[in-house]
Amino acid sequence: MPKHTYLNSEYGLKSWLLTLDHKRIGILYLFTTTFFFMIGGTAAALIRLNLLTPGGELVAADTYNKLFSIHGIIMVFFFLVPIAPAVLGNFLIPLMIGAKDVAFPRINLLSWYLFVTGGCCELYAIIWGGMDTGWTFTTPLSTHYVNTHVIAAAMGIFIAGFSSILTGVNFIVTVHRLRAPGMTWFRMPLFIWSYYATSIIFVLATPVIAITLVLIMLERFIGIGVFDPTKGGDPLLFQHLFWFYSHPAVYVMILPGMGVISEVVACFSRKRIFGYTAVAFSSVAIAVFSFFVWAHHMFIMGISNYSALVFSFMTMLVAVPSAIKIFNWSATMYKGSISFDTPMLYSFSFIGLFTIGGMTGIMLASLGMDIHLTETYFIVAHFHYVMVGGMVSAIMAGLHFWWPKITGRMYPEPLGRLAAAILFIGFNLTFFPQFIVGYMGMPRRYHSYPPEFQVLNVLSTAGASVLAIGYLLPAVYLIWSLKYGKIAGPNPWRATGLEWQVQSPPLTENFTETPVVDFEAYDFEWLENHTKNEVQTVG
Amino acid sequence: MRCRPLDSQTLAIPPTHSESGHEHSPHLHHHFASVDQQREASNFGMWLFLLTEIMFFGGMFTAYLIYRNWYYPAFVAGSHWMIIWAGTLNTVVLICSSFTMAMGVYSAETRNRKALLRYLTATLLLGFVFLGIKAFEWHNEWVEHHVPGLNFSIHDFTHVDPRYPDDKPLSPDMAEKTQTYFSLYFLLTGVHALHMLIGVSILFFLIFNAWRGAYTTGHMTFIENFGLYWHFVDIVWIFLFPLLYLISRHQ
Amino acid sequence: MSEELDEPTHHAHTVVHPKVYALVFGALLFLTALTTGVSYVELGVFNAVVALAIAVIKGSLVVLFFMHMRYSSKLLKLTICSGFFTLFVLLSLTMTDYISRAWGLW
């Protein structure tokens, strides 16, 4: 283990809470997002337990409504949106581009404090009674008809939104201005392209939900009437504004994962990513197109048919860049030298499950299908396939892949593979039945359901318990590895990338001298030719 | 090891102070290679922040666009109650303040401390004038019972307006919709005024620092970036003025 | 440290002459008077068009000259345009709904 690292350069709580080191800030975010993941997961467990019986007797209907609302808000705004950018992005972006830190380190720290503040506000809303409108705050339900803590919940998200905005600004400026000499745009790892695209969405979309939540709070507080039909307002205006952010937000939730997959697939196929330019541009294309499709969440809500047609067509288009990535990753693996380490297993998970999620998304993009399937469990299954099957697999892949870099230790590989398999099995067992019950008509957001759906629901809950093990097991062995894991060395995976050319864990300033880059990304041939005789520290 | 001069990276090296003999400005943060790079990065970051402000106001403009088209007569009636001289004067005040701010940036660039102080103070005073006039208008709206959700009354709109005697008063149905107009009015001008307040507060801080000579030694990034913010807030008002005050003065 | 290998990180920092500012200032005042004056003239639907057009011109003058967009790098110009483009997307795609509602209040 290297003597001096970013972890032991300073000791004490203050050195962590007042740090300007992007790596420490990434770790801070890891703690907070994991904490929120556990809260969201607990809500999910209670939901699935309640759905074991058709009568839904575990919790009252009102409580059930609060559970799925809390699950949605926490998982979307306090886990999936921040985790990849704020944890992996913060830690890795400067390392990957050869910089000493992000462009604005103090703003980086501020963004974490804003996140924590928003989170505390949200926790207050939850503990003091919760809110039950669903994470989508649909008006006029949220503004006039419920008496739960809508304002506090909205305020928490509003504050956390600024955390996203600041992170986005930081990343964009960092990628534009702090790349090492010689690192042109097309020599960057594709990971950076994905995070750059994500940051564009952060900057342009998040403010719209900020103002929308302000409007909700004002409407609720003083009744300004902007969404109230009795005062001439249009409830659909809320939905237009809400989904203008929330649709690009789902691409915020998946794009960083795609960046991770590019890195992992390249490394464990020992090949450069097929079609680098296509993959790079597809990230930006996803970010741009994501702004044109939001009303596909509103097909049955009362928008005009012509508008629905336009959005349906656009939604079909937005799938194309995602598909391009899947094809390119597959082509990368073709004739590659594949090894089945844990990060790669999670990547396989991602590619398969994201494809299923994506294709069901195309089904939903078509108006006729959507009218039948919307507000059913088919939608729930669709987005869990992309979010959990896709993004969470990617997060696990990234966490395992860069764990040795972040901590200097290796996790136990056999347990890693076991956990990946458990996650895959548990995930499919949980969510595939939901496609079926949804198609058969079981509506979402109801605490009870017709008895004919019970078998599949029981199957789904059983799957959820397996899935839970798939999350708990890594938590256990990753923490175990901090003390007992094998020392990793700088490059246990023999990967390309600047982050693998520094010690594990890195120094606080990352590089003692500025690297000069004169090679392309994913240059595995050079690596193979020059490291044949090196002793690897990890077997 | 691939890229020079990183060969020593894999060995644990105690962190050395990376300056090894080059002079650098006390303002230069260590992760930047030069003051120029830092300034450009800051500037770029500020512009990106302004993009978020465009979208923040954008949501409100969307609401305005829709409701103005749905309830045009109500919007006309509501707009008639705006104090045109106050709005026009406020527009002129903000344009003047934008000019003085731009001149302030120029003063910082030419390292003229006294001029910078004068222009920043002028900008501050003009900002206060704007807020003062705004407060006067809002007070007026309160007195006239035009504040939605708090004391709104449609009386003024269901009776003939003495200043526009040829205009028919609105039906009660459409008169109710004037509340939408005033909601948007308070929302837009309120959020705008909040941004003005923040700007004015930062100006105090800037003036104090400028007096101590902080921005006339060649490091004027803060002034430059604040100028961008101030101009942006002016642009928002440039749009708010016709949209709220000038809907239909001829009717 | 050589920066030549990378794309130019320097953009020539232009100092704008106060004369430019003064001219723009004058134009803005004139346009303000114009927009207020025109609002008293009956132009039907074109009242809104003229008012918005004048506002766009005024805003453009501020962005180009006071905010130095005219003298900025291509990157900055692209960034500013993308912001306005996104706003345009928000407004126009939302309008595709409202403008085509058969039952609507249009």
Question: Could you name the key traits of this structure?
Answer:
heterotrimer, A: 539 residues, mainly alpha, Cytochrome C Oxidase, Chain A, 16 helices, 0% strand, globular, B: 251 residues, Four Helix Bundle (Hemerythrin (Met), subunit A), elongated, disordered N terminus
What do you see in this structure?
The complex is a heterotrimer of chains A (539), B (251) and C (106). Chain A has 16 helices and no strands. With 539 residues, chain A is mainly alpha-helical. The model of chain A is unreliable at 535-539 (pLDDT under 50). Chain C has 2 domains: 15-67; 72-98. Chain C has helices at residues 18-38, 46-66, 74-98. In chain C, helix 1 (18-38) runs antiparallel to helix 2 (46-66). Chain C starts with 17 loop residues before the first helix and ends in an 8-residue tail after the last helix. Residues 1-9 of chain C have low confidence and may be disordered.
Strand content of chain A: under 5%
Please identify the top-level CATH class of chain B. Answer: Mainly Alpha
Order of helices and strands of chain B: HHHHHHHH
Helix percent band of chain B: 55-70%
Number of helices of chain B: 8
Number of DSSP-assigned strands of chain A: 0
Structural class of chain B: mainly alpha
What number of domains of chain B?
1
Short description:
By secondary structure, chain A is mostly helical.
Write the layout of secondary structure elements.
The complex is a heterotrimer of chains A (539), B (251) and C (106).
Chain A lengths: L12 H5 L4 H29 L10 H37 L7 H23 L13 H5 L4 H28 L12 H33 L12 H35 L6 H14 L15 H29 L8 H24 L1 H7 L3 H31 L5 H27 L14 H31 L39 H8 L8
Helix pairs in contact in A: 2-3, 2-4, 2-15, 3-4, 3-6, 3-7, 3-8, 3-13, 4-6, 6-7, 7-8, 7-9, 8-10, 8-11, 8-13, 9-10, 10-11, 11-13, 11-14, 13-14, 14-15
Chain B lengths: L34 H36 L1 H9 L3 H26 L3 H31 L11 H4 L13 H5 L1 H34 L9 H25 L6
Helix pairs in contact in B: 1-7, 1-8, 2-7, 3-4, 3-8, 4-7, 7-8
Chain C lengths: L17 H21 L7 H21 L7 H25 L8
